[in-house]
Amino acid sequence: xxxxxxxxxxxxxxxxxxxxxxxxxxxxxxxxxxxxxxxxxxxxxxxxxxxxxxxxxxxxxxxxxxxxxxxxxxxxxxxxxxxxxxxxxxxxxxxxxxxxxxxxxxxxxxxxxxxxxxxxxxxxxxxxxxxxxxxxxxxxxxxxxxxxxxxxxxxxxxxxxxxxxxxxxxxxxxxxxxxxxxxxxxxxxxxxxxxxxxxxxxxxxxxxxxxxxxxxxxxxxxxxxxxxxxxxxxxxxxxxxxxxxxxxxxxxxxxxxxxxxxxxxxxxxxxxxxxxxxxxxxxxxxxxxxxxxxxxxxxxxxxxxxxxxxxxxxxxxxxxxxxxxxxxxxxxxxxxxxxxxxxxxxxxxxxxxxxxxxxxxxxxxxxxxxxxxxxxxxxxxxxxxxxxxxxxxxxxxxxxxxxxxxxxxxxxxxxxxxxxxxxxxxxxxxxxxxxxxxxxxxxxxxxxxxxxxxxxxxxxxxxxxxxxxxxxxxxxxxxxxxxxxxxxxxxxxxxxxxxxxxxxxxxxxxxxxxxxxxxxxxxxxxxxxxxxxxxxxxxxxxxxxxxxxxxxxxxxxxxxxxxxxxxxxxxxxxxxxxxxxxxxxxxxxxxxxxxxxxxxxxxxxxxxxxxxxxxxxxxxxxxxxxxxxxxxxxxxxxxxxxxxxxxxxxxxxxxxxxxxxxxxxxxxxxxxxxxxxxxxxxxxxxxxxxxxxxxxxxxxxxxxxxxxxxxxxxxxxxxxxxxxxxxxxxxxxxxxxxxxxxxxxxxxxxxxxxxxxxxxxxxxxxxxxxxxxxxxxxxxxxxxxxxxxxxxxxxxxxxxxxxxxxxxxxxxxxxxxxxxxxxxxxxxxxxxxxxxxxxxxxxxxxxxxxxxxxxxxxxxxxxxxxxxxxxxxxxxxxxxxxxxxxxxxxxxxxxxxxxxxxxxxxxxxx
Length: 910
What we know:
mainly alpha, Rossmann fold, Arc Repressor Mutant, subunit A, five-stranded parallel sheet, 10 strands
């Protein structure tokens, strides 16, 4: 499609042929507007285009009087004559408004009275649209205010202006008779921008369109000018990448409609402050060498001159991105030598007022590297403690590479960045280089320098889980803090909080839980006292893991506290929360709240950084595996547990997580009926894992599957006391397995006692997962019939087992003639279907493969997927199996197959 430029709003409104965007949301606001509408926005915001489109879309052309005028035409008489003519040109006004001709003794006030008399009988609605109201003279505006206040209700006013009008509109606002549409309302959304470019026949990729939309801030003229320039362009993506306020059409527009309209002092302020991302009156006065900035900036905002206030007090302002581009372009063209001096002055002002980030950036732009280093090093700890480490690394990237290697302070900061990236060897080299160059650090800065180095040593030791090194570095740092005048003023408590939390993190990695809990608590207390919420969040999140060893409820409370505090400061997706999210997810899964666990796992996944937190990564995948196991998705569970195992080598040894993951793998294989693979998984455990309580439980589970309850009880014996080294869910599992083994061994009283103990431990934390991993529905049913204790918990377990069964994920799922399982061997027989009698016909190899899946929870489609067969084929095999075994359902088939020795026997029930 072609495009054309037409005269319109503010001189250069662009209409893309076929590309007018129908802005239905704004149309609805105008349709339901009050008696007076003020559309106030900068030049090129689309005020005129919006109003003309709305009038056309709403069918109001015959009842709309449109009035505009040239900038230089400010005569009230001529303006009001044009208003009268426009009103007379409408269908309702044609019979009421008399013609008005120019006369020497006719002024605007007289015409207003004339119009009010003529319109007094107005019965049908008329819309009077006055465009460019800001161009009218002060006298004309006073006359307009009179007309607005005295006009009949059926005369509606739509006033388009570049800045707010002094028409007593505040009274209308209070009375509910004013609708305001401002610049923010007129900004194009991304979808509207896409519609505009599609209408112009311009194809842009999603990222390119998003970049252009962000650059223009949705400014209608900017988007339309871009579309005009892009029509037929050979390299649209390249054009977007370089698009700025200095682009010819945009620059011409902004120069003509904004900058050249300003008086000399205002232009000077705009040009010299364009180097700033934000400006206030004091800073403007500094850079211009004049006064009045505190008055000019708010006036520019009120005039919609592409100046935006940043705070409620309207003390800080910024310029529209494209306008700032133009201003800098003009400054380079007129005073190119001013840039270094302006940046240097800005750097000094920002540094003196505590705005370290801007101070560093302007010092770098001025080439004052010494100042940039000093400010960044002095505020590095503060930036990281405020959760802005990424910003600190961004500032570090602004230094020349040769300077980084030559300056000991910058080298230390580079080591910090490498630690965050996980490049630990590189970080150590930088720290060694910094230590070697410490003599070159000015004497008055060495205290802060030593603090930075010591903090990085602690972080490095923590990442390596090197407890001795971390303890030594932390103690050295805290001794240094105690030394008089050793630490820069105000940093002592900050350093103490960081050292304590870091030490607690390392002790947690080494499973020194009491020490970790103590140091984390001390660090949290210091951080809370000195107002360092980010450090407090780190301590709370890491403390979530410690709390989990004491109480799952406490872990949830601690994690929730960390998350809520982080959300208050905008850190809800920060990696420091990965620990809290993952632990809460784990607790939810242990409680059998699988959907909740899934939700928390998604939160954890969004924050997880594997290279930074191997224990959390492993716990995340392990919890995912447990969740999939509970849902009966065994392949997914095994895949997640394999992913967990990939992180095991990164953990400090010994660590409980690898044994827990391996035990879950064994349980998953057993639930899938693959006893041989479960045995192999146990055989592959190293010596340390074999001696853990989790491994003993896994051994017992395998022995129960092999119908050897006595061996299972022997494996469990060291775990059946309160001092056994087990987390609470594993303790529940140990007693549950004992109950199953006692029941299978013919000891119902002992089984009941062991099950009672499992309930006693599980109930305070609501732990349900062990009862899903080791299902024993008949045992639970008998127990609940004999006792009323733990009735609520037993009911929840029963509901979960029933729910999982109905979904095809439970141990007792029964879907006659549709389900299959595993474990068995082919035999000869005649299939009479009586217990103990062989089948009438021998089972084929294919039927035996299907039979092995009958004890599992897999549905027919899932079995078909496992065996790479069609669903129809599996159903046929199931029907043949039932016929040969003389049964009518899955459970009967399994029982008969076990009786005949085709499947391994289940634990005996009494």
